[in-house]
Amino acid sequence: MARAIWSGSLSFGLVNLPVRMYSAMESHTVHFHQIQRGTSDRVRNKRVNERTGKEVPAEEIVKGVEAGDGYVLVEPEELDDIAPGRSKALEIGGFVDLDAVEPVYFATTYYLGPRGKDYAKVYALLHRALQESNKAGIATFVMRNRAYLVAVKAEADILALHTLHWADEIRDPHDEIGDLPGRTKIPDKELQTAVQLIEALSTEWHPEDYHDTYQERVRALIEAKRKGGTVEKGQEPPESTNVVDLMSALQASVDSARGARKGKPGKEPGAAARRRTGRSTGRSSGKGTGAGAGKGRSGGTGRKASRTGQDLTGLNKAELYERATEAGVPGRSSMTRDELLDALSGGGRSHAKAS
């Protein structure tokens, strides 16, 4: 059972509910130590006086804020004297429509639990009332000598507390983003097709269906290096969609998404769009007037075909790598997408072992 990180009394009106607060999240990030290359020696950070170069013990360190030509120094005890201390009160000052709180305000999530079975009814009552009204209780409280603005809301069968950013912490996007587009005229056909694409790609929200593939690859890299092996390089980012190709990319994406939803063997939407616009790998799209225009290494249409005659240009790097593994292509783990495509189509690097 997790240890509570704060306990106190949640109050609304004249009702008081003793609660405990628990962390709702834990990190699965791989944490690295700093090691000097060529050794197994840890590298550690030290607090060093930048003028003398000597290490400074913790008890001799105070906080300072730049002011003019020097620093204003503040002792830890002085901060303790002005802080309101460890608060035990979580007083809801009002309830707001949950939809009115913009997502940018939400920071960290915690769980609230009743402090004992005697308070289960009050806890359940507040939970049900928040759920029925679709409102959140707004409160402030102090934890670890810091004041927090929070929203208390019902989630599933528990009460959750979300810390919120203060209003003056939220940046204005118009001030931060220099090239933020203004009002842009969008053709009706492009807008309708974009809406169709969103509808075709719409799905139910199941967070367990998503996982951190980057951390999985980091762990795979560590394990491979431990065993003296290698891992496949990551997939190259897709090309930006040209404004001229936008409608073709949208329609190809809609067709691909609808085909995949019907259970047809589908390609990734980006690949379908690139095939439609002739920009799959940056090579010729097949347009031209010469005798050899539109012909690629496969000899006819400019598309890469495998030895079985199958078009491979719509496959992403991961799919090509899987085909290369089945075919026993040597050196595939260090190949780019284009090199995998060449190897599988018989050009560039050839098979060492036929499947």
Write the layout of secondary structure elements.
Layout: E1 6-12, E2 15-23, E3 63-67, E4 70-74, H1 76-82, E5 89-97, E6 106-114, H2 120-133, E7 135-143, E8 146-155, E9 158-164, H3 173-176, H4 188-200, H5 213-226, H6 246-261, H7 269-277, H8 317-327, H9 337-345
Parallel strand pairs: 1-5
Antiparallel strand pairs: 1-2, 2-6, 3-4, 5-7, 6-9, 7-8, 8-9
Helix pairs in contact: 4-6, 6-7, 8-9
Low-confidence stretches: 264-303, 348-355
Order of helices and strands: EEEEHEEHEEEHHHHHHH
Quick one: how many beta strands?
9
Strand content: 15-25%
The class by helix and strand makeup works out as alpha+beta
Query: How many helices?
Result: 9
Helix content: 25-40%
Largest sheet: 7 strands, mixed, barrel
Radius of gyration: 30 Å
* Form type: extended
Report the average pLDDT across residues: 79
Q: Give the CA-CA distance, first to last residue.
A: 53 Å
Q: For the largest beta sheet, what order do the strands appear in spatially?
A: 1-2-6-9-8-7-5
